[in-house]
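Batch manifest, entry 17 of 40.
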Amino acid sequence: MDSLIMAGGKGTRLNLNIEKPLLEINGIRIIDDMIKNLLNSEIENIYIAVSPNTPETKKHILENLESYSKYLEDSKTTSDAKIFIIETSGKDYVHDLGECIPYFKSSFLTLSGDLVNVKSKTINTIIRYYSNICKKNNDIEALCVVTPIEDYPATPTINFEGYVPLGINIVSPNEKYQKEELFVLKEPILNVNTIEDLTIVIEDNL
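Output type: structure tokens
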């Protein structure tokens, strides 16, 4: 399965003079930490959607393409995953996602470009869960990863019947209605949308 990091948002709620994917937390930029964990997972290829809102993110990724292999946890192994840049309009998340869909021929994992603490093990768990439910019910095309609202470490922007969507999904390149399954994940994954979120990440060492 391929993955898509959505890294083209404006990040206006954070109100900092830096693009969100480039925020450095615990000595590593958010975008680099996401790439690191994807490279060490079962993901085959990594696509990163950037836009006119995130020119420095695009520049950073391109400058580091050759060096991302240093993130492989086992120095004796290599990852065949390739990293690709997709340039979108930056209009909004849904519109940009639609612009990315033609790059995929089968279901793919999407992640918001401001996620902290998404580990390789978690990525593999999500992929395997999706694979298992599709074997049992071939009508399922999409997966939405959520956490119970009481387990979310910050103030959620969305309350979906007691759950907080984490910005992690598996979707089909079929642009029509997709039957979706919820996957409840009890891990401290956080979207860095506000200064409050950033403070929690730093203070709690997520």
